[in-house]
Amino acid sequence: MAVGVLALQGSFNEHIAALKRVGVKGVEVRKPEQLESLKALIIPGGESTTMAKLAEYHNLFPALRDFVKTGKPVWGTCAGLIFLADKAIGQKIGGQELIGGLDCTVHRNFFGSQIQSFVAEVPVPEVVAKEGGPPSFLGVFIRAPGILEVGPQVQVLAQVSAPSDQSDPTGKIIEVLTNPENAGSEKKVIVAVKQGNLLATAFHPELTSDTRWHSYFLKMISETSQDASSSNSEDLNLSEQPKYELPVFQQ
């Protein structure tokens, strides 16, 4: 069993270390042919424009799109979320190529610049129900994107409060993020979603020692593979790993 981690730029080493903590080998991926033997793929956080240019240089986009279409699990964190989105706004001049497949609109750097990075407790009932542990995760948001819109097949896993001074470049943020049943409610922005074999988070679970997100992702292998059986989790030795650990980043 090997899980690939796109290793063009960004926090791929941190994801490989997290996979090791849950008993799974992480494989660095830089060439299209390296995707062929993998059961799942993680697209890490980093500088999305730079990652896109490197992926284009190595002719990775066709192979990455094909991998998504196979139904094998793919998880994008931060820049990886942008890669998986069908539509991204707020990009640099000239834009960037996307892999697509995730029916959502993402705002690049929704939460601001590097100096506006932050950490926040993020409630994720769906993941906690499967992995146990505390009711929330410490989300590390570094120049993070925000998800503005999702399609009907997309499951929202987590939301956080939107910045009070957040502008509305699309004319849709207020409409989408405000609960229509509660006028004047606090605005929320979506920061984690799942759609079929695709998982995406705007924050960086790989930068904490809480391994529940990685365990949750690995269990998607048995949920999304047509020939999967109940033995998959045993093969991954997930049941022998600690359900959670104390986070690296603390407020």
Give your account of this protein's structure:
- Belongs to the glutaminase PdxT/SNO family.
- This protein has a 7-stranded mixed beta sheet. The protein has a 3-stranded mixed beta sheet with strand order 5-6-9. A two-stranded antiparallel sheet has the order 7-8.
- Residues 178-183 and 226-247 have low confidence and may be disordered.
- It has 8 helices and 12 strands.
- Strand 11 and strand 12 (198-201) form a beta hairpin.
- It has 251 residues and is of the alpha/beta class.
- What are the low-pLDDT stretches, counting only 5+ consecutive residues below 50? 178-183, 226-247
Biggest sheet: strand arrangement = 2-1-3-4-12-11-10
Number of strands: 12
Number of helices: 8
Could you tell me the mean pLDDT?
83
Radius of gyration based on Cα positions: 17 Å
- Assign a percent range to the helix content: 25-40%
Name the overall outline. Answer: globular
Q: How widely separated are the two ends? A: 36 Å
Label the structural class. alpha/beta
Secondary-structure element series: EHEEHHEHEEEHEEEHEEHH
The share of residues in extended strands comes to 25-35%
| Main pleated sheet | 7 strands, mixed
